[in-house]
Design a protein that fits this description.
This protein has helices spanning 30-34, 41-63, 82-99, 108-114, 158-168, 175-183, 205-217, 223-249, 264-276, 286-289, 294-305, and strands at residues 2-4, 9-16, 20-28, 73-78, 103-107, 126-131, 136-141, 147-152, 253-257, 280-282. The protein is 44% helix and 18% strand. The longest helix is centred in the last third of the chain and has 27 residues, at 223-249. It binds 5'-O-[(R)-(carboxyoxy)(hydroxy)phosphoryl]adenosine (KG4) and zinc ion. Zinc ion binds at residues 108, 112, 132, 259, 291.
């Protein structure tokens, strides 16, 4: 059983053998943060406290099991908002203590990758493209425990760029899904500057600024076209570097992960790559792309197999790296 509470979703799930979801409950705080145009950490932490027990009870109910049937209790330790992380960690530690089972602290980034194990038979090695609110990384996953970042953004994360553009053009929070929807009504007919970065690294701030400047200088520009043009360029850049990583490593399996992997254009663009070239593409089903606890449970399972149990004194690590 795992709990996720690193940002704006209070989630709990039970997963069997790392791949089979038995129950998966997510309480979203979107309605609350919408009013402020983004996540307010203190409000988020308080909302987690309000929701956590209900979410845990509902998970046990959906699964038809009790704490005694659970092998281990996991929760996200970072990265994330400290006050939010502590709520989920304390709940998981309490359950572990009460039922005398191991507690496993899970890295949220690692868990986004593990979302690809659910309902699939994906096995390492593979190349992961992690695109979330705070991260844009190409990761060489050699085994369930060995992974190496081989490319990353030198400025904005893709999700962050989606969110900032959405805010400026008036779409509000959460920006990514709203941009996705708007882009479907537009044409990618606006030329934007391409920034070239060495190796497998990325840069998205130039593209983001170009869109924002265009919006300010030409107020009647079609917003749907702006969104579609941005999405197309982002997809091209992500594809180019991930393909390069495949060529350099000779690993012809790509797994997309993180909130932005829910983007319909990006999913389609990668699927086309599978059809054109000899590359297998994996991405989690939509509700497992954004924050959820099933992915934490899956990552927790692989930690459990290795005997990676955590001390109950373990603290939250807000800036934890992969
Ligand atoms: O992985 P995630 O849920 O949380 C983090 O760990 O950061 O990712 C959230 C990010 C946000 O920036 C959000 O705008 C973006 O994922 N996102 C999307 C879509 N759904 C979520 N971006 C583009 N298109 C989407 N459909
Ligand atoms: Zn996340």
């Amino acid at each position: 059983m795992a709990i996720e509470s690193s940002c704006d979703e209070t989630a709990c799930a039970i997963v069997k053998g790392g791949r089979e979801v038995i129950a998966n409950v997510v309480a979203s705080q979107i309605k609350i943060h919408e009013e402020f145009g983004g996540v307010i950490p203190e409000i988020a932490a308080r909302e987690h406290l309000e929701a956590i027990n209900v979410v845990i009870d509902e998970t046990f109910k959906q699964a038809g099991v009790t704490g005694k049937d659970v092998t281990a209790f996991a929760s996200t330790v970072g990265p994330g908002l400290v006050g939010c992380l502590l709520v989920g960690m304390n709940a998981a530690k309490t359950l572990a203590l009460a039922y005398d089972k191991p507690f496993i602290g899970v890295n949220h980034l690692n868990a986004h990758l593990a979302a690809n194990f659910i309902d699939t038979n994906l096995e390492p090695p593979f190349i992961a493209l992690l695109v979330s609110g705070g991260h844009t990384q190409i990761i060489k996953v050699s085994s369930f425990s060995e992974m190496e970042i081989i490319g990353e953004t030198i400025d904005d994360a893709v999700g962050e760029a989606f969110d900032k553009i959405a805010r400026v053009i008036g779409l509000g929070y959460p920006g990514g899904p709203k941009m996705d929807k708007l882009a479907q009504e537009g044409k990618s007919n606006i030329d934007l500057p391409k920034v070239h970065v060495e190796g497998l690294d990325f840069s998205f701030s130039g593209l983001k600024t170009a869109i924002i400047n265009l919006h300010h200088k030409t107020p009647d520009i079609n917003k749907a076209d702006l969104a579609a043009s941005f999405e197309k360029d982002v997809a091209e850049i992500l594809l180019e570097n991930t393909k390069k990583a495949v060529n350099e490593t000779n690993i012809n399996k790509i797994a997309l992960a993180g909130g932005v992997s829910a983007n319909s254009y990006i999913r389609k663009a990668f699927k086309e790559l599978e059809e054109k070239e000899n590359i297998e593409i994996y991405y989690p089903e939509l509700k497992l792309c954004t924050d959820n606890a099933a992915m934490i449970a899956s990552a927790g399972y692989y930690n459990y197999l290795k005997g990676n149990f955590s001390d109950l004194k373990l603290n939250a690590v807000p800036n934890l790296k992969l």
